[in-house]
Amino acid sequence: MMRTVQQRLVSRPLPDVFASVTAQIAALKGTLDVRAGASIAVGCSSRGIGNYASIVGAVVAGLKELGLSPFCFPAMGSHGSATAAGQAKVLAHAGISEETMGCPVRSSLEVELLGELPNGMPVAMDRHAFEADAFVVVNRVKPHTEFTHPFESGLMKMIAIGIGKEFGATVYHRYFLRDGYGATISAIVDRVTASRPLLFGVGIAEDGFGQTAEVEVMPSATMRFSEAEMLRRVRAMLPKLPFDDIDVLVIDEMGKDISGSGFDTKVVGRLSMPLLGADPDKPRVKRIVVCDLTDASAGNADGVGIADFITDRLYCKIDRQALYVNALAGSEPEHARIPMVLPTDQAAVEAAIATIGPVDAASLRLVRIANTKDLATIEVSAALAAECDDVEGLTLLGEPFPLGYTDGALGSLRRSRTTAG
């Protein structure tokens, strides 16, 4: 039997995102070293970020109010199947187009080479951004799935890997395996910003429910410090699985709009990149089942190799070209491996349970989640439900129910009221 569990998460929604951003940009008037009418490239992300179109729209509007001429471009490495049209489509799906932004959207995989670093690594920059007078980046700040550092996934990484396009993403990840992420990204950013002026970065912090909690316009001179401070605040708001030892984790959906690796490796406790580093110490999950791939992923199931079992439904949505381009650019062939494919959710879950050793229904430690970004409501087996009273922030809701299937498919996760903290 299963129980619905509500986690108490941090809820701090920012009331007026657009007004906050435009006011901060207006405050920069007179401080930016750029001529009137200068072209400003606004780097945009491929992640599923709440209010992203509104935030980017506010950046465009704010730049226009300063008398500048902005345009948007994809700063997303190899995403969008590493094609100009594919990356423009990713932005359009996020609500960023010439019509919605009121400015051009320029998508290309062409890069300008900026020379080599002392370690021999070439550095590249999106051609459109290089040809602009200056650039801006707009991205969510959060922990990265593959490394730990004062800055991780956010503005610094976007300036390096995102603006480097497929060429940069592919080359840089090879050097990350030898030289590490932090120092390499920092050196790339130094080279890029020495080649073209960075006006500012716009960091976005999300609360435990994925709501926009903060949007900070960070001047270039202080951006590294400000991003590190924002990441520290974000860590305090992030949701996680409330148990360290889990037999079977069932994930309803994975996708590039949820995490770069389809699902957050730090949430599930698996990195699965032995050349880069060891898996996290916890949580310790014996088997992972993933049931579906989000439509927004457009077939890119990067990270699927971290799972143990997937469904035929997910498998049939995989675009191997999109998956392989991403995995090769990230030097992570392990993430593109195809796990055992079972015909239904039920078959996949039963296979997972059957491969963890002798366990009865009463002692099975099973957790079901919608995805690794939405952890407010989860479902747990009886053994874990019995531990909920001892875990701060957890509330059991409703009565026990069977993990039911309809034609082998799991029903909708039993969502309940929002509980904030």
Description:
This protein has 421 residues and is α/β, with parallel strands linked by helices. It folds into two domains: 2-8 and 240-410, no CATH class; 32-237, 3-Layer(aba) Sandwich (Rossmann fold). Helices cover 30% and strands 22% of the residues. The strands form four sheets. The chain has an eight-stranded mixed sheet with strand order 12-11-10-9-13-14-1-15. Helix 10 (265-268) links the parallel strand 9 (245-251) and strand 10 (284-290). Helix 1 (17-26) runs parallel beside helix 2 (52-65). The relative contact order is 0.16.
The CATH homologous superfamily of the largest domain is called: LarA, N-terminal domain
Strand content: 15-25%
CATH architecture of the largest domain: 3-Layer(aba) Sandwich
CATH topology of the largest domain: Rossmann fold
CATH class of the largest domain: Alpha Beta
Uncertain spans: 416-420
- Helix amount, in percent? 25-40%
Structural class: alpha/beta
Distance between the termini: 28 Å
Radius of gyration: 22 Å
Count of DSSP strands: 17
Number of domains: 2
Biggest β-sheet: count, sense, barrel?
Answer: 8 strands, mixed
Strand order of the largest sheet: 12-11-10-9-13-14-1-15
Q: Which outline best applies?
A: globular
Tally of helical segments: 14
Mean pLDDT: 94
